[in-house]
Design a protein that fits this description.
617 residues; alpha+beta; Beta-Lactamase; 4 domains; five-stranded antiparallel sheet; five-stranded mixed sheet; 20 helices; 57% helix; 13% strand; elongated
Length: 617
């Protein structure tokens, strides 16, 4: 397996930085002592965890190098304490790397997990290190005494305060990190300047006011404020760096002048500052991310080619809470639909205006209680509907061509008795006048039948889309069936039943003919041209009329039923269907505020229920 030279070079650079920082921190460790045997915080343990988080398994061998060996070139029996430190800190870093695919300091959940795991790891390290010291010194050491508790506070503060800062430093030196840094952590020049300025100002104010407060502990906790401000304004990186700098400056200011009784208060503050920097920084970065996403979302809505608005139900009216510029252009045409929405909470369909056709989609917002807030989307479909009407006219012409053969046969059958009986009537007018009346009756009946057939074809072919007061559904269905019957095989039958003698609906005769033709063709193919289709018109309910189309074919499976209305989806054999029939029917009904639903599954025959808006008063 070839060695990745760039990654190897990056690892070596990170290792050199780690070893150099560890030696330096060990040499200046006395700067962090605020009392005998009491370190305010212990940065090396945070450095070790940061290196393990950054480099993974490759960092583990370097963690076992003792600090005194690096700093002074010597080792002693206490150097053995590096073993439990390396094992526990290394395992902690590997576990966190495994749990989080990206940087642990990139989400609030990651930060919370880091604090919890750090608490467990430092506590375990404290117990094991105490046991190791007992073995080395051959004397009993109480875990609960003040000195050991101070050690625990120092280690915990070192982890919380130093790990994110040192990890950001490692990412800065490593051009190709094996574990990518996120926007929460990068150590930029602006972040460094802001944090350093805020920390310096806070320490100066604290130094001037410290004697005015009742106790050193209360003065320490004044320094939480700049950490919180940094997290709120600039996010996680600034918050953790400010906490680091504030604590570093505070230790240097109180070193040598702090009363021994106040050491624990200082260490508790260090721990609180580290946790505050992490938690408030996470909240600040999350807030900034949400604001950024909201800004992008608002910009996308503002620039969307659709009209988008939020509507709020009020006792007497419907208010527009928010609207993008496109929606505001349609406000003068929205009066009718807004008035209708005072009674209903959901609507989808075309609404014609004096100059254009608008398609509205209005639904309750998912987070709105009881549908008080509505989401409205409107688009101008004038040109789209014009193209669709032209395509429908073209399809009608194609359909007329397809039924021309059946028409010719029917007209020939009707014209045949007219011609023959006209000739016979001329002969019988003198010789057998009693047969003349019967012949003329047959001629008249045949002529009327021919005229009716022609009218039906003209009704199908015309491109008149005006509904006016509505189209009588039962009569339109009857005419469409009569027109199709001439083209159907005798083994397939269509039956029309109705609960009402007539029903005015929001469809044109052409649209009704197109719907019937598509559903009849589907039933014909489903029954292999040897079945029946039953069409039933129901009662008027809630302003809509139902029309049921049910065949006795094999039906549609539950799997296919989910996609049956999709364009170009078909259950027919290759070459026998385009998959557009039901899609066209659904589109026609939706544009007239209607719907179509499949209510059966195989092996029961297919049953489609059409809900058609009524125009009856």
């Amino acid at each position: 397996m070839p060695v990745n030279r760039s990654r190897l070079l990056s690892l070596l650079l990170a290792a050199l930085v780690y070893l150099a920082l560890k030696a330096l921190l060990y040499r200046v460790a006395g700067l962090f002592d605020v009392a005998p045997n009491a370190s305010a915080w212990y940065p090396p343990i945070g450095l070790m965890l940061a290196f393990a988080l950054h480099s993974g398994w490759a960092a583990i061998p370097f963690l076992f190098v003792p600090s005194d060996l690096l700093a002074y070139g010597v080792i002693n029996s206490f150097s053995l304490l590096i073993i439990p430190q390396a094992i526990i800190v290394g395992a902690t870093g590997l576990v966190l790397r495994r749990w989080f695919a990206s940087d642990v300091f990139s989400t609030s959940k990651g930060v919370g997990t880091f604090i919890t795991v750090a608490l467990i790891s430092v506590s375990a390290l404290f117990v094991i290190s105490t046991a190791t010291v007992q073995v080395i010194t051959a004397r009993h050491i109480s875990i609960t005494d003040n000195i050991n508790f101070a050690y625990w506070l120092g280690d915990m503060s070192g982890v919380l305060l130093c790990t994110p800062v040192f990890l950001a430093l490692f990412h800065l030196f490593n051009r190709q990190p094996t574990w990518k840094s996120t926007s929460w952590l990068p150590l930029t020049a602006s972040t460094l300047m802001r944090s350093a300025g805020l920390a310096a100002a806070a320490l100066l104010i604290w130094f001037l006011l410290r004697n005015l407060l009742s106790s050193p502990a209360s003065s320490f906790f004044l320094l939480i404020l700049p950490i919180a401000v940094a997290g709120f304004l600039w996010g996680f990186g600034a918050s953790t760096l400010t906490a680091f700098l504030v604590n570093l400056g505070l230790v240097l200011l109180v070193r040598g002048v702090l009363d021994t009784r106040d050491v624990v208060d200082l260490q508790v503050f260090m721990l609180a500052a580290g946790a505050t920097g992490l938690l408030l920084g996470a909240l600040g970065s999350t807030r900034m991310e949400l604001l950024g996403r909201n800004a992008h979302l608002v910009r996308a809505i503002e620039e969307a080619p659709l009209g988008i608005a939020l509507l709020q139900h009020q006792p007497a009216k419907l208010n527009v809470v928010f609207a993008n510029p496109i929606f505001l252009r349609f406000i003068p045409d929205a009066t009718t639909i807004l008035q209708r929405l005072q009674q209903i909470h959901e609507f989808e369909g075309d609404v014609p205006t004096s100059e254009r056709m608008l398609h509205w989609t209005i639904k309750p917002a998912s987070a709105s209680p009881q549908g008080e807030t509505l989401i409205a989307i409107v688009r101008d479909v004038t040109e789209q509907r014009r193209r669709e009407h032209a395509e429908q006219h073209q399809r009608r012409m194609v359909a007329i061509g397809e039924i021309a053969g059946g028409m010719a046969h029917e007209l020939n059958n009707l014209l045949h008795p007219i011609i023959n009986l006209s000739q016979q009537a001329r002969k019988d007018a003198i010789a057998k006048p009693e047969r003349l009346g019967k012949a003329l009756s047959i001629i008249e009946e045949s002529a009327r039948g021919s005229a009716q057939l022609v009218r039906q074809v003209l009704s199908f072919a015309r491109n008149d889309e005006e509904i006016g007061g509505g189209t009588e559904l039962v009569a339109a269905l009857r005419d469409s069936i009569a027109l199709l019957t001439s083209t159907l095989p005798p083994t397939f039958t269509i039956t029309l039943t109705h609960d009402v003698p007539s029903a005015l609906v929001n469809l044109t005769r052409t649209e009704i003919s197109q719907i019937v033709t598509n559903l009849v063709v589907n039933a014909l193919d489903a029954t292999d041209q040897r079945g029946r289709l039953t069409i039933h018109v129901g009662q008027l309910v809630d302003g809509s009329v139902t029309a049921t189309f049910e065949d006795n074919g094999p039906g549609i499976s539950a799997e296919d039923a989910e996609r049956i209305m999709e364009p170009f989806f078909t259950t027919k054999p290759h070459g026998r269907g385009t998959g557009l029939g039901l899609a066209v029917v659904r589109d026609l009904l939706l544009r007239r505020n209607g719907s179509i639903k499949l209510v059966t599954q195989a092996p029961q025959g297919a049953c489609f229920v059409l809900s058609i808006q009524s125009t009856a008063e």
